[in-house]
Design brief:
The protein is mainly α. It is built from eleven helices and no strands. The protein starts with a helix and ends with a helix. This is Autophagy protein.
């Protein structure tokens, strides 16, 4: 509970207690058997008026609580606007860090790099096939379950080969030449292709590494934005709670992961609505305090007047009591004429009537009237006991 709320609560409790003292005061006036109780009640009434005036002064003074709280609300509004502006900047920045892979798939693919690969083995290989005939090569074997380099397979089929083809020594040597040349060329071509493949695989590994680094950078940036947005919300909640303003909870927040354009737009719209609601609540509380300040200022003179009237009322009745006691002492050796006392009391009654008409506040007017009625009752009793000389 803030200091302002504490003082407002005290003001309310004292006002309530003062209203209860009105009845206690009337009862104490009618109870002639216990004069001390009346003095206690009168003192409590004086304390209540004094406390109400002091509290009111603390509320409305130039450096008082109400003006201080109003200043805090003005500063709060400024802080909320600054936080909101930063929040909007972060949400827009968050949108920039969202990568939409679907956009990349719809763009036209750039022309790729072309590689021209020359092979040097096919001519000799084709010459060999043409010389021996394709039906007399391993390509013609059906359901071959063996590797072409399997010695067992070659040996087991040697007789069949000899039966299918009869070649001259010259052609046989040509076959060997074609095969050796083609095999050497194929080996060289394979090395070239392997080098190209190794280069592509190296580039792929580089791309994967860079992709991980850039994704980590994006995640770090998103996390940083999300953390700052969370801090803004926490700061705003603390500021509002410190001012005694409680807003309805809203469920929207920025997560660390990927968000769609629509969700960012929703968050921005939600932030704007929350800002409007926050400013509205601050404005309502500020207007309420300004009205309280106005009311308390207008009531300040009344509180002072009530305190002064009650003090003057007490001064009058206590002065009357002293006069009556003095009159009784002066006439202790002779019979005291009630008319003399009545005249003294009537003067006090007239004074109290004047005080009663001065203030239209119910509480103090009622208690002054009760004091007056008690004196009137005393006069009536004295008149009944009065005897002619």
């Amino acid at each position: 509970m803030s200091q302002l709320d504490t003082f407002l609560k005290q003001k309310k409790e004292i006002t309530k207690y003062l209203k209860e003292l009105v009845s206690a005061h009337r009862e104490a006036l009618s109870d002639v058997s216990d004069g001390n109780q009346l003095d206690i009640v009168r003192e409590h009434i004086s304390i209540c008026f004094s406390d109400l005036r002091m509290i009111n002064d603390k509320l409305i003074s130039h450096t008082g609580l109400l003006k201080s709280e109003i200043t805090k609300l003005i500063e709060l509004r400024k802080s909320i606007l600054e936080l909101s502006a930063r929040e909007m900047e972060l949400l827009e920045e968050r949108r920039l860090w969202d990568f939409d892979s679907d956009l990349n798939s719809t763009e036209s693919k750039p022309e790729g790099n072309k590689f021209t690969i020359e092979t040097h083995y096919r001519d000799d290989m084709n010459k060999y096939i043409e010389l021996v005939g394709i039906t007399n090569t391993s390509l013609a074997r059906k359901d071959d379950k063996y590797n072409v380099d399997d010695n067992k397979h070659i040996n087991s089929n040697q007789d069949n080969v000899n039966n299918r083809i009869v070649m001259s020594k010259e052609n046989t040597l040509k076959c060997i030449t074609y095969l050796q040349t083609a095999n050497a060329a194929a080996n060289d071509d394979s090395k070239v292709l392997q080098t190209l493949l190794n280069s592509i695989q190296k580039d792929q590994k580089f791309l994967e590494t860079e992709l991980k680094l850039q994704n980590a950078r994006i995640r770090h940036k998103r996390n940083k934005i999300a953390a700052e947005l969370t801090k803004i919300n926490q700061t705003r909640d603390l500021l509002m709670a410190g001012s005694g303003i409680k807003l309805p909870k809203q469920g929207t927040s920025v997560k660390n992961g990927k968000t769609s354009k629509d969700s960012i737009d929703d968050l921005i719209q939600s932030a704007r609505e929350k800002l409007e609601l926050t400013l509205e609540f601050i404005g309502i509380k500020k207007d309420t305090m300004l009205q309280q300040l106005k009311d308390f200022k207008s009531g300040s003179s009344n509180l002072t007047l009530q305190e002064e009237l009650w003090a003057e009322c007490l001064e009058e009745v206590t002065s009357l009591e002293r006069k009556l006691k003095l009159e009784i002492v002066k006439n202790s050796d002779k019979r005291l004429d009630p008319k003399d006392l009545t005249e003294v009391i009537r003067l006090s009654i007239q004074h109290l009537e004047k005080l009663e008409r001065t203030e239209n506040q119910i509480i103090v007017s009622t208690m002054i009237k009760d004091e007056k009625e008690t004196l009137i009752s005393a006069c009536n009793q004295l008149q009944q006991r009065s005897v002619p000389y």
